[in-house]
Amino acid sequence: MVNARQAIEAQSDGGKLLMSDVYQRIREDIIMGRLEAGRKLRIEELKAEYGTGASPLREALSLLIPEGFVDRLENRGFRVSGVTLTDFDDLLDMRCWSESRALRRSIERGGKEWEGEIVLALYWFSQAFPDHDAHDDRASERRRLHKTFHMALIAECGSPMLMELCSRLFDRNDRYRSLVNFAATAERNHVAEHEQIVEAVLRRDADAAVSALAEHYGKLRRQIEPILTP
Amino acid sequence: MVNARQAIEAQSDGGKLLMSDVYQRIREDIIMGRLEAGRKLRIEELKAEYGTGASPLREALSLLIPEGFVDRLENRGFRVSGVTLTDFDDLLDMRCWSESRALRRSIERGGKEWEGEIVLALYWFSQAFPDHDAHDDRASERRRLHKTFHMALIAECGSPMLMELCSRLFDRNDRYRSLVNFAATAERNHVAEHEQIVEAVLRRDADAAVSALAEHYGKLRRQIEPILTP
DNA sequence: TGGCGTCATTTTATCGACAAAACTGCCATT
DNA sequence: AATGGCAGTTTTGTCGATAAAATGACGCCA
User: Fold this and answer.
1) Which of B16, B66, B90 sits opposite A75 (nearest CB)?
2) Quick check: B105 CB within 7 A of strand C?
3) Which residues on chain A are in Cβ contact (under 8 Å) with B59?
4) Which residue of A lies nearest to B98 if distances are taken between CA atoms?
5) Which of A65, A133, B34, B119 could form a disulfide with A138 if both were Cys (CB 3.0 to 4.6 A apart)?
6) Is B24 on the interface with A (CB under 8 A)?
7) Which positions fall inside the HTH gntR-type domain (chains A, B) (predicted)?
């Protein structure tokens, strides 16, 4: 769970705060599965791992608690929050209806430049994809492009709160994505799935777009199920 | 055997950690408007006010950031996040559709004991209300009973995440509620508004319940508007 | 008057230290 | 063999001190 750091550090913008840096690194490490679910987060260990003192660490972990990535027990420290099939199903349901709403409103409100952003984001994502590679920074970059695409879809929904909700749910979902191994992922044709959504969006066919999106999100469910049922 | 420790834990919520206590106090102070929007939160001031060191304070404030109650600027400290009409409208919209969903699902799934909880919560709320009083602890108690009632309505939606979302939105909304003075509040017949919702719920009339709920939430909009338009 | 650099003061972010709590391994007792 | 203390070790939560950054005051000069 260590050395893919430079890329993320470089991207962390303006962060003269030691704490912001460690926050983003821990967050990404949890999302990418480098810090596995349920793992104890001992302050001394993290100090060595992330090269900082206890105060920035504790602040960073505190930020991650309301986001649902970290749990805390009184006098028993921090740990990475768990992943369960029940939680995933809840998440999937939340995502389907909140993004559906956001997508419908974007389709109503979005103009040509919105369409352009989507097409562009899809292009970059599809470029990144064939080059599949389980190596950490590649995976991080792919995740970034994937998120950029999905956020572009709903960018014109007109509600900052709804955008933030979708963003948070997306990141929580990526914890589950990182659980499926790469072979399984390669079975799906991700680019085609996304193209299908875009095609419906460009036709301004909200119903088709929403159902393609739901279908897209639902596919991970079938990959996750065998992993989380013991 | 009930030992003393459990009793204390049960009585003081989140008990032994100094930080949990200060977290809840600051949170409530922001929601109730005792810490007004935009106000600078200097650590030294807070140390005196809440009687603790810098570390618990910074952790508590960090928890409040993702919840949207506190903003942070690099090397410029913390401040209470702002309230605007735009933000309120976004919030109102989010609340209407997320609680509508939660309420519909509760009406589908909830049983007799769910109905009982609602009736009970309404009873306690209506008891607390006529005794109106702008005094702080009364206001806090009324807020608590009001929230208990609304959470009881959606308690059977079956989605922990949706419940948490509604809970967070409710608390953010209460910041706006605390802006309207008590005279204005007294003009409304709060108990009647809530009874109307309950009546529709007990008839299992989801459409009527949802629209009564939306109507209820919308009423604050008219009270807020003159306050936030300068 | 009004903009600008400089210096002193305040405020922030971080570190190291310490008391209290939790965990661990061991031994005696049943 | 299992249970229940008991001491030693780790780990947590909090405090005070300190360097870096921001803020504010003041005088200088156009």
Assistant:
1) B16
2) no
3) 58-59, 62
4) A98
5) A133
6) no
7) 16-83
Does A102 lie in the same domain as A193? Answer: yes
The pairs formed by A109-118 with CB atoms below 8 angstroms and a separation of 24 or more are: A109/A156, A109/A157, A109/A158, A110/A155, A110/A156, A111/A156, A114/A152, A114/A155, A114/A156, A115/A201, A115/A202, A117/A152, A117/A155, A118/A149, A118/A152, A118/A153, A118/A198, A118/A201
Chain B residues 109-128 with CB within 8 Å of chain A = none
pLDDT one digit per residue (tens) for chain B, 230 residues? 223 333 333 333 445 899 999 999 999 999 999 999 999 999 999 999 999 999 999 999 999 999 999 999 999 999 999 999 999 999 999 999 999 999 999 999 999 999 999 999 999 999 886 555 667 778 899 999 999 999 999 999 999 999 999 999 999 999 999 999 776 777 788 899 999 999 999 999 999 999 999 999 999 999 999 999 97
Distance of C1' in C9 from CA in A15, Å: 26
Tell me the torsion sign for CA atoms B179, B185, B191, B197. negative
What confidence score (pLDDT) does residue B218 get? 96
Report CA(B94)–C1'(C15) in Å, whole number: 43
Q: Of the candidates B59, B74, B97, which has its C-beta nearest A14's C-beta?
A: B74
Q: Token pair 């309420």 is at which residue?
A: B103
Instruction: Report the gap between the CA of A193 and the closest CA in chain B (Å).
Output: 27
The verdict on A139 and A42 lying in the same domain is no
Same domain, A74 and A161: no
For the residues A115-121, what does the mean pLDDT come to?
98
A57 and A90 belong to one structural domain:
no
Structural domain for A60, as ranges: 5-80
The answer to whether residue A192 neighbours chain B at the CB level (below 8 Å) is: no
Q: Please tell me the predicted confidence (pLDDT) of residue A106.
A: 98
Q: What is the pLDDT of residue A2?
A: 28
- Decide which of A187 and A227 is more confident: A227
Which of these, B92, B97, B111, lies nearest to A94 by C-alpha position?
B97
Give me the CATH number covering residue B138.
Answer: 1.20.120.530
